[in-house]
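Appendix B, Record 12. Input sequence as logged:
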Amino acid sequence: RDARPCGWGAVAVAFGLMAVASSVAAQPDEATRNQARDRFNAGRTAMEAENYELALTEFRAANELIPAATALYNIGLCLQKLHRDIESLVVFREFLESYPAPTGDSEREVRDRQRYQEVQNIVEGIRDTVGTVEVNVAVSGATVLVDGQLVGSAPLGHPVELVQGPHVFRAEVE
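Logged structural output:
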């Protein structure tokens, strides 16, 4: 089954659920809600046109304004379409941690549970193409780069996840 961007109605439901679940968090004002909805809709339009970079930008903007499961899901889909597997894995893991599968039997909860299962399956598929590498650098504080991207400072304290294939590791000391 081909994953499709989630609609705005589901975002409204997710926003509503988040508002109920988080009584401590301040409610976004109407202007923020409208801006988030507009950015989300722009993301959906871009995704339907297969402009995944633009869609990613719009979904991220919507999610920054008002975090929502559907925006995070669509961010993950865009990253996957852009073959940015490690980033999509991180986003889908965040989705699974932030938005647990509902346990009820309403139509919405059944649909959300199916979405949760779909994301679990996507994560499993990505993990099949990802490995971890333990990077040890002799100089503490050295900047560690993999394929030109900053990974952190030595000692890293965690393995680095990479897609299968050749990679360039570099440590720099200033």
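Residues 8-24 have pLDDT under 50 and may be disordered.
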